[in-house]
Design goal:
The structure holds two protein chains of two kinds. By secondary structure, chain A is α/β, with parallel strands linked by helices. Chain A contains nine helices and twelve strands. In chain A, helix 2 crosses helix 3, helix 4 packs across helix 5 and helix 5 packs parallel to helix 6. By secondary structure, chain B is of the alpha/beta class. Helix content of chain B is about 25%, strand content about 40%. Chain B is built from eleven helices and 20 strands. In chain B, a hairpin with a 2-residue loop joins strand 2 and strand 3. In chain B, helix 5 packs across helix 6, helix 8 crosses helix 9 and helix 9 runs antiparallel to helix 10. The two termini of chain B are about 40 Å apart. Classes of the chains: A alpha/beta, B alpha/beta.
Chain lengths: ~250, ~450
């Protein structure tokens, strides 16, 4: 589904990603772990199409199409979804209006009719239950005045509504207490599907107790230096990121 | 005779002389007009050397020889289209075309007892006492030459009077249409008066539209909210692209009175709004909002003033502007808290959104506080659309242009959402959406 080959990228002239190779198949959940500054969030932003990041080399194939050649909105329409590490507050735009605009933009892209208001409302209520999101938040301005947990839940709620093929969760666990983390993880697990791939980016292994990955990759200094199954996360948690220094030095 | 187009002062003075000859004008008004034209001659038209006009160059307006707008027929105006473009809804309406009463644009059927809506020429005959007691008493026409000219030269306008204790449920829509003359710039000096007597309630919308062409609309509206009365006022400027608009609104609120005024400006080449509220009775409250959405070479200057003259009054002022192209806006917000006005609670906010690198904002809060037990806050921001917001919207599938529109709309809609007239709110909503999609349909209607 997603084939990243030798991807390198920089921001403000500083190279952050130094040749990433990663392949995700439909139905798989991959986790990327790594210390601060390793390039985890850069990878997420580059995949979503943020233009402040400069792609220096490599390729990203998404379902047979060149992802890097697409605008952020076209990537979304093709089925890429990024759950932001820091969801953005948008005063004056209600959550429901925002989501309906997004859903209709995606439908229009695929030549499908727009969703009508009643159907949309029913669908949104059902998806809100999935992440235990207070229905009142649906009509509030996007993320404005939301707590940290509410913002992260809102990301997963959006994912549920937009129904992507590939979901990238960028530190969706950061700043959450254990109860909020469980709710978010439950929501994600409910959205696991045979035809959907999920890339979970995290600093801590704890999230992976609840969203159990098929593959775990360790990112350090802009490269994936180790890959394995879910036990790699446990090993990493036990040994700490310092354990990686030797691996990085050895390259 | 040489024609000095840069400062053709005598041009308007001679107009005053010819007005004075023919009219059956009451003595007090003759005196007022005489004072005003004398004042105009004394102060002259404004220049950018004057503090009040520092950022607004009116040389093009000053240098144009405007003749009084001739009578124009409302025939040819698509009234249904005007309604669609201005306001539908269940409203009373009084219309003027080129400064003259237009029966075609007027519908005052069902106006309740205690409410009169008439032209100022009718009011001077039929309701002379109301006009005499209020006209020229509130407007600070001495402040600039255009207001002095209006006072000296106005021929028509609308007088709304709501008797003590009468609550008018439906808003009154005053619509002024300009049909310009090809090849000859024209001017209309309009004078309106709105009086809500003690415990009365009135809601008035003034809207200004025009066919394409060079013309000048010069208006003054005086509004009185008596003790415990509510006056809710809206000005909607959708003048033609080449038009000049100078408009003054002066409101007075008595004890526990409510004076609300909203200046919504989309049209005109150059607009100067002078908006003043005097909170003259204890417990009076004022909401003063403004929304400017302009582009191209448009200029909109909002000078506002809130005068806390007595204790225990509150005022909330929020002005927002969206600028594209090389458009320019000025906000000068004066809050005066007089020595006796203890326990004043006043908040002023000015926010500006620049959609282009070439747009310009001058914002100047001007707080003068002479009392010591007051709460006064003010703040001003000038910014562009937030890149992280745009990316967030795009990452969900919303196109770049649509994301810009949505965020701009959200910024402007903050003001529209506060409007108390549903019909006006909905029309403005539509207008904002269309304007932001560059599908403004004003021309088609006229």
């Amino acid at each position: 589904m997603l084939d990243i080959k030798n991807l390198s990228a920089s921001v403000g002239g500083k190279t952050i990603l130094k040749g990433i190779n990663l392949s995700l198949k439909p139905g798989e959940v991959h986790a990327i772990m790594g210390p601060n500054g390793s390039g985890k969030s850069t990878l997420a932003q580059v995949l979503a199409g943020r233009d402040s990041y400069e792609v220096e080399g490599g390729s990203v194939d998404f379902l047979g199409k060149d992802l890097l050649d697409m605008s952020p909105e076209d990537r979304a329409c093709e089925g890429v979804f990024l759950a932001f590490q820091y969801p953005v507050e948008i005063p004056g735009v209600s959550n429901s209006y925002f989501l309906r605009s997004a859903l209709n933009a995606i439908k229009k892209y695929h030549g499908q009719p727009e969703v009508d208001a009643m159907d949309f409302l029913a669908m949104v209520k059902e998806k809100a239950r999935l992440v235990h999101m207070d229905e009142a938040l649906i009509n509030r301005a996007v993320n404005e005045g939301f707590s940290g947990g509410e913002k992260k839940r809102n990301e997963i709620f959006q994912m549920a509504v937009l129904d992507p093929k590939l979901a990238i969760l960028d530190e969706t666990d950061s700043g959450l207490d254990i109860d909020a983390l469980k709710i978010v993880a439950e929501g994600v697990n409910a959205l696991r599907r045979k035809d959907r791939a999920i890339l979970v980016i995290t600093h801590y292994q704890r999230l992976l107790d609840y969203i159990v990955p098929d593959h775990v990759h360790v990112l350090a200094d802009g490269r994936i230096i180790k890959s394995g199954d879910k036990t790699l996360a446990t090993e990493l948690e036990a040994k700490g990121y310092g354990w990686l220094d030797d691996l990085v030095a050895a390259r | 005779m040489t024609l000095d187009v840069t400062l053709d002062r005598d041009h308007y003075v001679s107009r005053h002389a010819s007005l004075a000859k023919g009219a059956s004008t009451p003595a007090w008004l003759i005196t007022l007009r005489q004072k005003a034209i004398q004042h105009y001659q004394d102060i002259g038209l404004p220049t950018t050397h004057q503090e009040e006009w520092r950022f607004t160059n009116t040389q093009a307006l000053n240098g144009t020889r405007f003749e009084p707008a001739p009578a124009a027929s409302a025939a040819g105006i698509d009234i249904a289209a005007i309604e669609r473009l201005t306001l539908g809804g269940d409203l009373y309406r009084i219309g003027l075309v080129n400064g003259r009463f237009s029966p075609e644009l007027t519908n005052l059927a069902g106006l309740p007892t205690g409410v009169t809506v008439q032209t100022i020429s009718d009011a001077l005959r039929a309701s002379a006492a109301v006009v005499d007691a209020n006209l020229g008493r509130h407007a600070r026409w001495e402040n600039n030459a255009y207001s002095a000219l209006n006072t000296a030269l106005f021929e028509e306008g609308v007088v709304v009077h709501v008797a003590k204790g009468v609550v008018l449920e439906k808003p009154i829509h005053l619509i002024h249409v300009t049909i310009p003359t090809a090849g000859q710039p024209t001017v209309t000096h309009l004078r309106n008066l709105i009086v809500a007597e003690e415990s009365a309630q009135v809601r008035v919308i003034e809207s200004y539209v025009g066919r394409r062409g060079t013309y000048w609309t010069n208006t003054i509206t005086e509004i009185v909210a008596g003790d415990n009365a509510v006056a809710d006022h809206y000005r909607l400027n959708r003048e033609a692209d080449e038009a000049y608009h100078t408009g003054r609104v002066d409101m007075f609120a008595g004890r526990s009175g409510v004076a609300n005024t909203h200046a919504i400006t989309f049209g005109g080449l150059l607009t100067r709004n002078d908006t003043g509220v005097v909170l003259g009775g204890e417990g009076a409250d004022c909401t003063m909002n403004g929304l400017t959405v302009i582009g191209g070479k448009q200029l909109v200057d909002n000078h506002t003033s809130i005068d806390h003259a007595v204790p225990h009054c509150t005022s909330h002022e929020l002005y927002k502007a969206v600028l594209d192209g090389t458009a320019k806006t000025v906000f000068n917000g004066r809050i005066l808290v007089r020595k006796d006005a203890q326990k004043t609670d006043s908040k002023q906010t000015n926010k500006n959104l620049l959609l282009s690198d070439k747009a310009l904002v001058n914002t100047n809060p001007q707080l003068e506080i002479y009392a010591d037990d007051v709460k006064c806050t003010h703040g001003a921001t000038i910014g562009q659309l937030d890149e992280s917001m745009i990316f967030y919207l795009r990452s969900r599938g919303i196109g770049e242009t649509a994301a810009h529109h949505l965020l701009t709309y959200a910024f402007a809609n903050d003001i529209v959402g506060r409007i108390q007239v549903p019909a006006l709110r909905e029309r403005l909503n539509d207008y904002l959406v269309h304007r932001l999609r560059d599908e403004d349909g004003t021309e088609e209607a006229l």
